[in-house]
Write a structure and sequence with these properties.
The protein is 5% helix and 37% strand. It is mainly β and 154 residues long. It has a single domain (17-152), classed as Elongation Factor Tu (Ef-tu), domain 3 (Beta Barrel), CATH 2.40.30. It has a five-stranded antiparallel β-sheet with strand order 2-1-7-8-11, with no helix packed on it. It is globular and about 65 Å long.
């Protein structure tokens, strides 16, 4: 595919009305919207570990490993409502099946990014401070079983 044309303001993607959903049980059928709590979604694709080992005879040996899984870290506003994502995440065991997907608006034709076979890796406790004027946030991280997937919303 060739890159053609130039970038215009009309083509820039704004995430101000983004849709962020978590699959509560890893089944791929129980997606719950969490964008009203979410403040950030940070995705990192798994790297490929390499080692470059020089030997005493002057040779170099390069080893290339298998691509690591991708990880998605989500920051959400913390609340203690029974139906909120924080309670759901704290009740879930680390390593439990959880997937996440996000798109710019959830509309037909949008590109949606998602994990497949994800596992809950971590969920931070809320951090409190007497000098803090803002809202309390927590972070959770999901590891995808492989790379981040992309689809066009039908």
């Amino acid at each position: 595919m060739a890159i053609t044309g130039t970038l215009t303001d009309a083509n820039l993607v704004k995430m101000s009305n983004a849709v962020v959903e978590i699959d509560e049980d890893g089944s791929g059928t129980t997606w719950a919207p969490i964008e009203s709590w979410a403040t950030a979604v940070e995705a990192t694709r798994g790297g490929v570990p390499t080692a470059d080992d020089p030997t005493l005879d002057g040779e170099r040996h390069l080893s290339v490993g298998i691509q690591e899984n991708s990880r998605i870290k989500v920051t959400i506003l913390y609340d203690e409502a029974a139906g909120g994502p924080a309670v759901n995440l704290y009740d879930a065991a680390l390593g439990s099946n959880k997937d996440i997907r996000w798109s710019k608006s959830g509309a037909s034709g949008d590109r949606r990014f998602f994990t497949n076979g994800g596992k809950l890796l971590s969920c931070s406790p809320p951090q409190y401070s007497s000098g803090e004027n803002g809202n309390t946030k927590i972070e959770f991280e999901i590891e995808s079983a492989g790379d981040i997937q992309v689809e066009t919303i039908p």
